[in-house]
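Narrative of activities, Objective 1.

The group set out to show that a structural description can be obtained from nothing but a protein's sequence at a throughput compatible with the screening campaign. Below is one input-output pair from the validation batch, recorded exactly as produced.
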Amino acid sequence: MFKSTFKRIVIVFAIAAGLICGNSFHRIGVSGDDSLLSSKFDQELKSDIPSEITTISGIEMVLIPAGEFTTSYIMERLTKSRRIIITEPFYLGKYPVTQSQWEEIMGSNPSKFKGDSDSPVENVTWDTVQEFIQRINAKESTNRYRLPTDAEWEYAVRANTQTKYFWGDEIAYMDKYVWHRENSGAKTHPVGMKLPNQWGLYDMLGNVYELVQDKIDGKYYIYNDIIDYYDDASVLIDPVGNSYIQPNYHPDLFNTLRGWSWSSGRTEISVDKRSPGLIFYLDKESGNIGFRLSSSVD
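Output recorded for this entry:
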């Protein structure tokens, strides 16, 4: 029994090692002409769509226009590029959801680092975040609120850049934008204290990992090799990762985390890396995991 358990742990860690640095979206592949799509998101946003909205509980959200970005991924041990197209505008939280905002909706505060209500809520789980979303939707009699997809999150953090960081390629400027291991004092900090990206989003990197809607599908990864089910398509449209279903493995292992956290080293952080929920699953009291609310445009 011990050998079986140990083997399972080794397999999970091996899969996780491939997931941490892997970059792959798997949903809709297009290898032909996508000119009809480009005309859709190249249009100017309608003037009657607010550039910012605020929920009843005070969560400020920024309008993110439709568009595209290019990401890299590994195929047959070669690094390739792929266009990701986001066909619809959406709203994204200007900041991670804070402890006071969480407590107003949920009536309690699960965070490890209490003491400042403007710090991001952490120690949340996939299930409790889904409950938060259900409650805030009910409170406003809507169904517009959700988590961003992995692709939406990366598109938003890049903000029309193609550099390692949204401010450029220079790690020397990171302290102006990011709470990380070397400057955080081993804790979270109130949101909005660092500089935002070009679209006015704060704390997209560092402070807390952010849950996104996608589940990393372990079948896409075998150690450091990626199995591509879309025939190496050069374009993906509104991609969403599939759910991972495997007996005896807790589903939180395969939640996708973006943005890194206060405990991440400076050299670990970039706009394109993702992490598996294994980090959360092994240490539920880490104070690492938060989230950012997203919304469709009515």
